[in-house]
């Protein structure tokens, strides 16, 4: 870990020195220090954002993988031998690995029984593009009432927001094949073009601003119209508005003396739909900090009236901004500072809304008053903070703290499959330093299990259609696939497959 | 020889040098062996490893220590959720036990995944551990004899999962506990629930007759190593069969497992657990159940409320029966009743366990919230107290989803109690920051416990030390009686904050603090003021219903029989205990609320050159007596630093009450306020108070938007999602009419006129867009026109054109009207004249200010007010809820009556500033400013020059404007010049309430406390920390950690 830090710290200082076109070309068919994972809307493809944290290459990359193909590379879970094909035996809840077993000696650092899955395997139908170095995260959104999907990636190397259209062919038609489109076709190195980077051109907004240095966390409103990126050294929240017909543009950078300098987590709150009204133009976000025990609320202040579709115009002339809605203290922990990831679960509200008859405005109004669950990964002490909003107020209050092991960083809310085949909500918290992902059951208020991962679990994403959790292992550069199927408790939370060959950082060899 | 000596010395020197070079500063790194600690049990164990009842420990009699079986030690077992182990701590030896010395680091007892709960048998022979991990749920039995490292002599194998008798569960267990089922004569008896199988109540017949046991057990050998099993037959503690009660949250049941049957399980076999009984818990919330309100929370603040009730007051009501199934959580046992918290349903189950096998559910306790009657209140931890000498018993339960943090409810579960809802405490109007039915202290509650403790005083006549004797303050009591012996002596002995004698609650907070709650303090009667009040109406000290025969709690020689604290509310049941005496005394120091300094006046720049007599003053006012007249007013004491001032003119240091007093330089120059002693808890430990003329009270808002559909030329609607206007306390015209009529005694006609000038207003504080903004290129109105109309944002003062009257206030919007002539809101896009909508085209930056009045704010609690959102529209209105009795933050300045001659010139008992230069008299006479024409409220006659009236008096003219707050009592007199906006009086207070706390954070700031329990024998609180401190023991005498703990 110390050696890894020795690598990372210089990277932090050198990050501003990245110059495209220099250095060794990044191998775009490899997963390399993965920092962001995202699934497309139908969960057909996994998008992996690789960074260049050891300065070996001249950029990062984004790959897409076909999840149906990936599933054929995973061993089948089983209870008895009869569950396995071709008379194979069921061992520890798994049928034989499609590509053989990994040596026992390798399983200490890189858990999982099966040999790694080659990212270049035909069955994965992978696509890739080159992006700037030192990406930090990724978020994918689908257009409201549309089929277009976009991937947004903050990139520290050139302080931009990269954006990619996904599942579109080279002519721009939606084909759902996992293709990535960011103007790379004209380039010699398959890299995204300048039009697919936002925030580096002051002329594209009336305030003449550029994205501050060190963009870090990102989240977007439900349909990707509003995007907020935190800048982790300047205490800034940067606002982008995304025009689905053209591109996202940087609009505003919020910073004041009340906002702590180290924002590292951001989460969008769902739209508080009023019965019978169009969507509220004021998208709201919650922001967490490394150096302060608080969660801060940011609200979009639009400029002018939303368009007829309810989508905010992101033309050069519009002047929307973010309003600092003050913060709530985190007092559920003894210290409470050093918060990392934040996630919002609106499933209870959605469930209440789904139960309403069409046009039953009273019912919808009541559903909108169902509180939102808010979770924060906090390191002082290492814990999962559990909070809830009190509608119509949007501020979360944290009422519970669940101890975790060292290094909680990101967390996501997803579903697991129960023995009866239904789904239940869980919160997944990655603990980078202690190689664990904790699975918290909010319904029963308990840690359900802890998943022992490989080194450096960083990016997490839960498959909404398959009982699988994908974990980007930053340290050893691969994606682990873990079972979330409670019908097979023997393999629940265990690694089924390894996408990419685990590779230790150069300095740690 | 000399050479040899020289060589030797040289070598010695060289060696010394080398040694010096090698002796670097040693760095001692503390190794922490415990990680993820969550639950703990304490055992008493002899040197043979046998368990004993915990009451036998600690071993205070070393006389028989020659026998190993007599040397008793306290051991603690602590769950380790990270490593799936149970750590062993030898508390008596002060060390963590390594049960696997053969491998580096500390080895503990390995059990299944995620050990979450433990329970030991009453005799201490075995401990049971519930583990909860997917597919690996179970219960492990740890015989006490196997808590140490494997005994080589017994050929014991290394401790691992297969060491322990264990059984598996098909579902996740929750809390576990060991209860005792009385033995039956016949064994086993037929079950009442035949389908569930038999529930054994025999005297361990499966173990055989103890008389038939061989005298010596076979010596274990390598082929037959000793197994870790235990027989509960004949263990200490109450007679009866040990039964394990297991919460099963997923099925909403309690299950009973025979403890010996589990212990008999073949180690390593992990069969399915055999439940002898399962009890399906019920969620039966009767409709119409309400909380019982104390007298001070019933009725209405408004005398004209229909039926004397208030529609704004919280309606205590149990939530309707829920569809949510029960999820049993924490346990607490008292006598034969098991209280079971429920994470899923709004009940705390009460299970009759007089027969474990025949357990049955009694009517449940009903958690609910007075402030949020619609919220479904669930609980996860519960604690039940022992029975007090007065026959009372209380239960604490944690409302885990309360906001802003988990709080604690108190239930009366005394044998005679019938109320099943959370207690609503009296005195809540005096503690507006407190929820009437909750205990909360800034951080979420994590666990609760009770400690019953007595330090009896020996009666010298009988030589008997009687338990449960309360302190007796009656001056007539025998001085040698135990009750009199308990009195405060020199503030270091007897009744005092640091002496816990009685029943106390303990709340473990997630920030690492442990708050102590007074439940039944035996010494409470001696913690009070010296003066008595036999009336049933509380006086300003909070005293009432005292013995009519006692006017002063002091002996004839002046010796106090009580502590002499400022209030009768120093010790109150179900409230946090104070860490110090509430007293200002030369011996004790300044411990009660007092001023750090005299109130200071700050004036804006425009008044910088004004004279003393031109400026307003705040002055003290005595307390009203029983008749409420000036004659029977009771003088008030005020401490400024260590100096006592009094409104009594005969006192050594007189607090000024008369604005025209010329007794001394001090009396004619200083300001003064009284700090009412009614409720010491209502004072923050340190506070700063400001009273600001036309003060801004809703913060500097930056996101106000005009509603484009309603904005007209003279009226507009301002919306701001970042603030609740009612929550901020905005007084619109109607609310101010109500205030003027009810509180200032004006007629409705007068009140309406008053409100037009005194209702709050909005002041725009933002700039018009900068000159280079592209906005001006397409705006019809020019920037210079806007600047002319509204002025610059940094102008001082801001132009009146920026002020707008709040005609109507709602929770999310204000209806505003132009306050100055000709300031339009919106003239339409074609007009070139300035208006608000186009001169401030984006979000409005603004403040909400009080008009022609002062705003009182405490740094600790902000501006108090009685405005609430009412009705479907959320209209801001004054509340009649009695809990808002003291919610006042507006101060109306008092002026002096003035008369006008026929030409309108001032000729009355006040001095117009314009006439001042022509008056050949003392300039400090008649300092109270004149009332304005038509001003009818807050006016008194300050008298002729040289014959001062002495200021306003209780019950006299102008007394309606004496500010009589919970923490501030004063009269604010107008100066001869009109008060200017942002003129501020400021004072600082100290000596407020400081709760008595113990804290883990003194050891480390990074803590995650998990559980707390009272250890009766050493009278210590044991706290388990999940982060860094492992297990800590706190003394109830020093309130700090007892060495050698913490054990980590």
In a few lines, what is going on in this structure?
Chain A is mainly beta and 509 residues long. Helices cover 7% and strands 37% of the residues of chain A.
How does this structure look, described?
The complex is a heterodimer of chains A (about 500) and B (about 1050). Chain A is mainly beta and about 500 residues long. Chain A has helices at about 1-15, 65-70, 345-355, 360-365, and strands at about 35-40, 45-50, 60-65, 125-130, 140, 150-155, 160-165, 180, 195-200, 215-220, 225-230, 235-240, 250-255, 265-270, 285-290, 295-300, 320-330, 340-345, 375-380, 380-390, 395-405, 410-415, 425-430, 435-440, 445-450, 455-460, 470-475, 480-485, 495-500. Chain A is globular, with a radius of gyration of 22 Å. The model of chain A is unreliable at about 1-5, about 5-20 and about 305-315 (pLDDT under 50). Chain B has about 1050 residues and is mainly beta. In chain B, a hairpin with a 4-residue loop joins strand 4 (about 85-90) and strand 5 (about 95). In chain B, helix 5 (about 735-740) packs across helix 6 (about 750-760). Chain B is elongated, with a radius of gyration of 36 Å. At the A-B interface, strand 17, strand 20, strand 21 and strand 25 of A face strand 34 of B.
């Amino acid at each position: 870990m110390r050696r890894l830090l020795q690598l990372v710290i210089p990277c932090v200082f050198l990050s501003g020195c990245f110059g495209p076109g220099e250095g060794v070309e990044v191998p775009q068919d490899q997963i390399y220090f993965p920092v962001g994972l995202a699934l497309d809307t139908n969960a057909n493809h996994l998008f992996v954002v690789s960074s260049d944290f050891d300065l070996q290459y001249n950029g990062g990359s984004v790959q897409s993988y076909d999840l149906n193909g990936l599933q054929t590379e995973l061993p089948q879970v089983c209870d008895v031998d009869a569950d396995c094909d071709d008379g194979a035996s069921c061992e520890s809840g798994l049928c034989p690995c499609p590509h053989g077993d990994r040596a026992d000696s390798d399983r200490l650092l890189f858990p999982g029984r099966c040999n790694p899955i080659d990212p270049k395997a035909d069955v994965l139908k992978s696509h890739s593009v080159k992006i700037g170095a030192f990406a930090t995260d990724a978020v994918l959104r689908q257009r409201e009432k549309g089929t277009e999907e976009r991937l947004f990636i903050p990139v520290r190397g050139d302080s931009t927001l990269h954006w990619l259209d996904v599942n579109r062919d080279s002519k721009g038609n939606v084909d759902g094949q996992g293709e990535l489109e960011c103007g790379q076709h004209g380039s010699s190195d398959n890299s995204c073009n300048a039009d697919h980077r936002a925030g580096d051109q002051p002329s594209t907004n009336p305030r003449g601003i550029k994205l501050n240095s060190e963009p870090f966390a990102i989240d977007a409103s439900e349909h990707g119209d509003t995007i907020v990126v935190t800048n982790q050294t300047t205490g800034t929240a940067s606002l982008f508005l995304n025009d689905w017909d053209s591109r996202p543009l940087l609009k505003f950078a919020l910073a004041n003396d009340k906002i702590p300098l180290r924002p590292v987590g951001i989460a969008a709150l769902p739209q508080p739909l009023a019965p019978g009204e169009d969507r509220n133009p004021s998208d709201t976000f919650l922001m967490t900090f490394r150096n302060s025990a608080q969660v801060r609320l940011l609200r979009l202040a639009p400029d002018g009236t939303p368009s007829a579709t309810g989508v905010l115009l992101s033309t050069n002339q519009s002047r929307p901004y973010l309003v600092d809605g003050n913060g709530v203290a985190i007092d559920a922990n003894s210290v409470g500072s050093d918060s990392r990831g934040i996630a919002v679960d609106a499933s209870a509200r959605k469930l209440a809304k789904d139960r309403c008859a069409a046009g039953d405005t009273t019912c919808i109004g009541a559903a909108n008053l169902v509180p939102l669950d808010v979770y924060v990964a906090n390191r002082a002490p290492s814990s999962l903070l559990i909070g809830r909003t009190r509608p119509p107020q949007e501020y979360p209050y944290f009422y519970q703290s669940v101890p975790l092991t060292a290094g909680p960083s990101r967390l996501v809310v997803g579903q697991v499959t129960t023995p009866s085949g239904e789904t239940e909500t869980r919160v997944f918290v990655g603990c980078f330093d202690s190689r664990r992902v904790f699975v918290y059951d909010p319904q029963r208020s308990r840690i359900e299990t802890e998943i022992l991962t490989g080194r450096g679990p960083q990016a997490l994403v839960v498959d909404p259609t398959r009982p699988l959790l994908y974990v980007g292992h930053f340290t050893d550069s691969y994606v682990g696939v873990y079972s979330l199927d409670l019908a097979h408790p023997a393999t629940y939370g265990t690694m089924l497959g390894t996408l990419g060959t685990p590779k230790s950082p150069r300095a740690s060899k | 020889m000399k050479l040899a000596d020289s060589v030797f010395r040289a070598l010695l020197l060289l060696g010394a040098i080398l040694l010096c070079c090698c002796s670097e500063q040693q760095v001692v790194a503390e190794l922490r062996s415990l990680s993820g600690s969550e639950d703990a049990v304490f055992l008493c164990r002899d040197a043979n490893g046998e368990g004993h009842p915990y009451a036998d420990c600690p071993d205070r009699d070393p006389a028989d220590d020659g026998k190993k079986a007599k040397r008793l030690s306290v051991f603690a077992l602590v769950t380790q959720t990270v490593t799936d182990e149970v750590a062993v701590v030898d508390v008596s030896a002060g060390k963590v036990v390594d049960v696997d010395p053969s491998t580096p680091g500390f080895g503990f007892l390995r059990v299944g995944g995620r050990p979450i709960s433990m329970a030991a048998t009453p005799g201490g022979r075995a401990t049971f551990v519930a583990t909860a991990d997917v597919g690996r749920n179970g219960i492990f039995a740890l015989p006490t004899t196997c808590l140490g490292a494997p005994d080589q002599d017994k050929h014991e194998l290394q401790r691992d999962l297969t060491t322990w008798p264990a059984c598996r569960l098909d579902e996740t267990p929750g809390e576990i506990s060991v209860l005792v089922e009385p033995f039956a004569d016949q064994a086993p008896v037929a079950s009442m629930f035949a389908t569930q199988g038999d529930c054994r109540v025999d005297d361990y017949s499966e173990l055989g007759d103890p008389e038939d046991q061989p005298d010596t057990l076979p010596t274990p050998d390598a082929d037959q190593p000793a197994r870790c099993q235990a027989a509960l037959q004949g263990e200490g503690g109450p007679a009866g069969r040990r039964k394990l009660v297991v919460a099963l949250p997923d099925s909403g049941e309690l299950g009973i497992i025979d403890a010996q049957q589990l212990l008999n399980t073949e180690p390593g076999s992990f069969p399915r657990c055999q439940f002898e009984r399962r009890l399906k818990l019920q969620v039966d919330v009767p409709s119409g159940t309400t909380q019982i309100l104390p007298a001070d929370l019933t009725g209405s603040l408004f005398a004209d409320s229909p039926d004397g009730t208030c529609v704004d007051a919280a309606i205590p009501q149990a939530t309707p029966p829920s569809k949510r199934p029960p999820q049993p959580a924490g346990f607490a046992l008292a006598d034969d009743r098991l209280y079971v918290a429920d994470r899923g349903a709004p009940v705390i189950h009460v299970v009759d366990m007089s027969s474990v096998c025949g357990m049955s559910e009694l009517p449940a306790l009903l958690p609910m919230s007075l402030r949020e009657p619609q919220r479904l209140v669930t609980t996860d931890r519960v604690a039940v107290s022992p029975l007090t000498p007065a026959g009372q018993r209380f239960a604490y339960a944690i409302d885990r989803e309360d906001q802003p943090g988990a709080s604690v409810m108190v239930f009366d579960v005394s044998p005679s109690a019938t109320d099943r809802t959370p207690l609503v405490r009296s005195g809540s109007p005096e503690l507006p920051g407190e929820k009437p039915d909750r205990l909360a202290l800034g951080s979420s509650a994590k666990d609760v416990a009770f400690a019953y403790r007595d330090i009896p005083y020996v009666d010298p006549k009988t030589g008997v030390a009687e338990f449960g004797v309360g302190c007796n303050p009656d001056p007539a009591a025998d001085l040698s009686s135990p009750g009199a012996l308990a009195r405060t002596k020199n503030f270091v002995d007897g009744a005092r904050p640091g002496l816990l004698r009685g029943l106390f609650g303990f709340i473990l907070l997630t920030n690492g603090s442990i708050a102590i709650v007074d439940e039944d303090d035996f010494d409470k009667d001696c913690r009070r003021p010296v003066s008595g009040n036999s009336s049933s109406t509380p006086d300003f000290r909070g005293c009432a219903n005292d013995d009519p025969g006692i006017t002063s709690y002091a002996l004839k020689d002046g010796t106090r029989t009580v502590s002499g604290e400022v209030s009768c509310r120093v010790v109150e049941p179900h409230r946090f205990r104070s860490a110090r005496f509430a007293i200002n005394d030369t011996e004790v120091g300044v411990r009660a609320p007092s001023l750090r300094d005299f109130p200071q006046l700050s004036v804006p720049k425009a008044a910088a050159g004004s004279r003393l007599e031109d400026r307003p003053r705040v002055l003290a006012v005595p307390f009203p007596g029983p008749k409420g007249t000036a004659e029977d007013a009771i003088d008030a004491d005020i401490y400024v630093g260590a100096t006592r001032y009094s409104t009594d003119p005969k006192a050594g240091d007189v607090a000024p009450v008369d604005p025209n007093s010329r007794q001394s330089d001090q009396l004619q120059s200083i300001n003064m306020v009284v700090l009412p002693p009614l409720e010491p808890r209502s004072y923050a430990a340190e506070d700063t108070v400001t009273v600001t003329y036309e003060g801004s009270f809703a913060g500097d808002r930056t996101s106000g938007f005009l509603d484009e559909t309603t904005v007209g030329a003279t009226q507009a609607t301002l919306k701001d999602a970042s603030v609740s206007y009612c929550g901020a306390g905005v007084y619109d015209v109607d609310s101010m009419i109500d205030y003027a009529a009810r509180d200032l005694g004006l007629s409705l006609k007068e009140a309406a006129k008053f409100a037009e000038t005194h209702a709050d207003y909005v002041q725009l504080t933002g700039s018009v867009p900068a000159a280079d903004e592209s906005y001006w290129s397409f705006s019809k109105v020019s920037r210079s026109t806007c600047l002319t109309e509204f002025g610059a944002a940094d102008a001082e003062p801001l132009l009146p054109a920026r002020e707008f009257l709040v005609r109507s206030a709602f929770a999310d919007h204000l209806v505003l009207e132009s306050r100055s002539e000709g300031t339009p809101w919106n003239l339409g896009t074609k007009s070139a004249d300035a208006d608000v909508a186009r001169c401030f085209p984006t979000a409005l930056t603004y403040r909400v200010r009080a008009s022609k009045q002062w705003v009182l704010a405490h740094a600790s609690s902000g501006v108090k007010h009685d405005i609430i959102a009412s009705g479907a529209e959320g209209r801001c209105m004054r509340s009649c809820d009695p809990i808002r009795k003291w919610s006042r933050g507006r101060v109306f300045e008092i002026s002096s009556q003035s008369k006008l001659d026929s030409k309108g010139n001032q000729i009355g008992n006040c001095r117009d500033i314009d006439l001042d230069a022509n008056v050949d008299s003392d300039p400090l006479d008649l300092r109270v400013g004149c009332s304005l024409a038509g001003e009818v409220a807050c006016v008194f006659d300050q008298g002729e020059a040289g014959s001062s009236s002495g200021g306003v008096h209780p019950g006299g003219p102008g007394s309606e404007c004496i500010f009589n707050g919970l923490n501030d009592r004063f009269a604010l007199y107008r100066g001869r010049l009109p008060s200017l906006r942002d003129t501020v009086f400021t004072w600082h207070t100290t000596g407020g309430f400081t709760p008595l706390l113990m804290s883990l954070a003194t050891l480390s700031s990074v803590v995650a406390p998990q559980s707390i329990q009272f250890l009766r024998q050493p009278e210590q609180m044991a706290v388990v920390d999940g982060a860094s401190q492992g297990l800590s023991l706190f003394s109830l005498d020093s309130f700090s950690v007892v060495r050698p703990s913490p054990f980590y």
